[in-house]
Amino acid sequence: MMTDGILPDREIAALFENDAIVAPIERDADQIQPASLDLRLGPKAYRVRASFLPGQGRTVAEQLARFQLHEFSLAEGAVLETGCVYVVPLLETLELPEDVRATANPKSSTGRLDIFTRVLADGGQEFDKLPAGYQGPLYLEISPRTFPILLRQGSRLSQIRFRTGEPLLSEAELSDLHAHERLTTALEANISGGGIALSIDLAGGADGLVGYRGKRHTGVVDVDRRGAYPLADFWEPIHRGKTGELVLDPDEFYILVSKEAVHVPPAFAAEMTPFDPLVGEFRVHYAGFFDPGFGHSAAGGTGSRAVLEVRSHDVPFILEDGQIVGRLVYERMQALPDRLYGLDLKSNYQAQGLKLSKHFV
């Protein structure tokens, strides 16, 4: 019987070996992360009229038959346009054990490109959540928001975590962990609501740079190419203002950074909590998974700041330096992973500050 916790890398590999995860082609050598699995796009995609959930007792395929506008191949690559909604069957199919459930989230690079993604499953009444014992296919809803993107079969935009029991730390447990491991560089950790508060840095460094705003009407970004695109063609730098404020324009996309560096010890994993209307009319951080070892000294980190993908909704919103914008919740790992984030994994964002996705130079 499994202990409560998030499954580490070797247990995810065991799910493959036991046919709890099945794919028509062999898995990629680097597909398994310390506490998650990258999901791969299949060979075809569908443009759909609008986002949807299948609902209880219905399959995604049945709903696609109702809502699709056209089907196209990803075998040779295809461009997905901004403002459109697509659904792509994933290569991975699940036959989870009765005590294993899962949640999905965009990968860090996906969020930093402002690609809105959510996993759908048959009978699903929520996005990105798979009940214990789920058996069936997976699909990815994809909606590029700022840049048109080029992708293909095998591209990896989303990731999935598997868990058993109730591994989420209580507020008291989180306070105790911080006392022993120092999870944030904040002078006084704000721990409430089950998470550690993160605030926004609008002071910047010596150069005054505090963030970037995505440009409109740019060229296409190939999601599988690293260091291929000039930063200036896609991003407008934002520098420190005299008042320490930043006005978020509605429906513009910003890359900002937390004031605190954070640390995820090897026996734990963390996640940025989703949009909380109590902190303002904006969404922070599409890609919420933080792996064991993020910012940890044993994995080459000295604390890493959280890069935040920020989008205002409906009305302009003023952010001020030091304003709380989200919370990081921590969960126990079922066991230590074999490899930590940043250690022998070519991790892109270890010991990071303000940093765009791996696609830009």
UniProtKB/TrEMBL annotation:
Keywords on this record?
A: Hydrolase, Nucleotide metabolism
Enzyme Commission number(s): 3.5.4.13
User: Where do the 2'-deoxycytidine 5'-triphosphate deaminase C-terminal domain residues begin and end?
Assistant: 171-360
Decide whether keyword Hydrolase is in the record. yes
The record's GO molecular-function terms, alphabetically, read: dCTP deaminase activity
InterPro entries with a match to the protein in the record? DCD_C, DCD_N, dUTPase-like_sf, dUTPase_trimeric
Instruction: Tell me which residues make up the 2'-deoxycytidine 5'-triphosphate deaminase N-terminal domain.
Output: 4-166
User: What protein name applies here?
Assistant: 2'-deoxycytidine 5'-triphosphate deaminase
Q: Which domain of life is it from?
A: Bacteria
Question: Would the keyword Hydrolase be found if you checked this record's keyword annotation?
Answer: yes
Q: Which GO terms describe its biological process?
A: 2'-deoxyribonucleotide metabolic process
Instruction: Provide the taxonomic classification.
Output: Bacteria, Pseudomonadati, Pseudomonadota, Alphaproteobacteria, Hyphomicrobiales
